[in-house]
Amino acid sequence: MTTSRPLALVNDLLALPGEQSWLEFKGNNTNPQMIGERISALSNAARLADKNHAYMLWGVQDGDHAVIGTGFQPSSERVQSQPLEFWLSQRLSPDVAFSFHEIVHPDGRVLLLEIPAATVAPVEFDRTAYIRIGSATPRLSDYPDRMRALWAKLQPYVWETGIAAQYVTSDEVLARLDYTSFFELTQQPLPDNRNGIFDRLQAEKLVIADVGGRWNITNLGAILFAKNLDEFDTRLSRKGVRFVAYDGNNRAANVVRRQDGKRGYASGFKGLIEYISALLPENEHIGQAFRTETVVFPPIAIRELIANALIHQDMTIQGTGPLIELFKDRMEITNPGEPLVSPDRFIDAPPRSRNEAMAALMRRMRICEEQGTGIDKVVAAAELYQLPPPDFQADNNATRAVLLAPRRFADMTTDERIRACQQHAVLKFVSGEVMRNSTLRERFGIEPQNAAQVSQVIRAALDRNLIRPADPERPKAGYVPVWA
């Protein structure tokens, strides 16, 4: 039975003024070679036209788009003793997930071939790439300008542009997405009509128009503004932020709190931070003139590390999402995917994100800091609170940031002291300064009479080739990272 969306799609295609580079009408021409070449040509043309799919329709006259019906049954066609679809798939490269759909149109039977646009390389049939130009289907290599333009548009799959919910009504969109949160966070007035709301949601690629006057919610729209991620399939619902608190220092301890996030990252971010902050114990922080009670972990460090985990995760890894774990002596924030930048260069290296659209929108909403400053602020906050240095790890296809609870210099491990020294040198360097014994003493909260303790840490960092003298002729003039 024909479902409503394919029929609506066919009606929208028939309503176009004529064939497009990504759309072709056929009567009953079912030549297998022709179909293979058209799949290549239409797929490549769709990418050039910024379309997600291309289409062929059998049972339609080219001129007036009248439905004349077709008896073409691809499932029963065989070529060289092979099923037609298998024969085509064997000759297409890269693999193209094309699909045939039988449409029971009121005016006759129509067959729809849906062809995904090229993604990583031009689609070839029998080792030749084709392109659609007018009604012709020449070899792509004969048109080098078009080939260059196609390569410029090809890129790896961008998760944010994927479809989270397809062919939904405008009412369903507004019921599933916290659109008022979007306007509040982007500091835009809420439009007084539905068209205005959808114009903005579409401009931000949170939704895209589907056929038949309906809409698709993108992965970007769902992951940022879903009212309940469980209303989407498990590819998305499993990416909700999970929080677990233990009553000890390891995962064998009893779980005292567990929260599985259901809201989108943007609309739920403030509530998540408030929930975690309310659970944190307080610690006495000694300022220049007075003592104050503050939370164990600097709020800006928690905020930035959680935002980074959301932005930089590998969304293509299924069945897992960001995880925040609170132990008695530390907080661990883990996201799926190896980091794109080496952990020891998180402070100074230009940031790289797998999810650029999500990162850009979250920065506009001030959920995270300006590009490239978040980790700097995390490390600087740890120094201000005189905490052990944060630890950034790449482990088992995941990235983990560890915030350690307050500990005196005497109680820090050798590795922690050396890591703090290296991070301090990097912070000074990116600020146009150099690390000195006196600045590192201040970072650790060590009195001048105990400067020898800091000198030992500096020597150990030099021995591990993490820092070097800023001026080899004057070794006591200060230190910089070894790569500086």
UniProtKB/TrEMBL annotation:
Keywords from the UniProt entry? ATP-binding, Nucleotide-binding
Q: Name one Pfam family in it.
A: HATPase_c_4
Q: Which superkingdom, per the lineage?
A: Bacteria
Q: Which residues form the Schlafen AlbA-2 domain?
A: 19-137
Q: Which GO-annotated molecular functions does the record name?
A: ATP binding
- Keyword ATP-binding present in the record's keywords: the answer is yes
Q: Which InterPro entries match?
A: RecG_C_sf (IPR038475), Schlafen_AlbA_2_dom (IPR007421), Schlafen_AlbA_2_dom_sf (IPR038461)
* UniProt-recorded name of the protein: ATP-binding protein
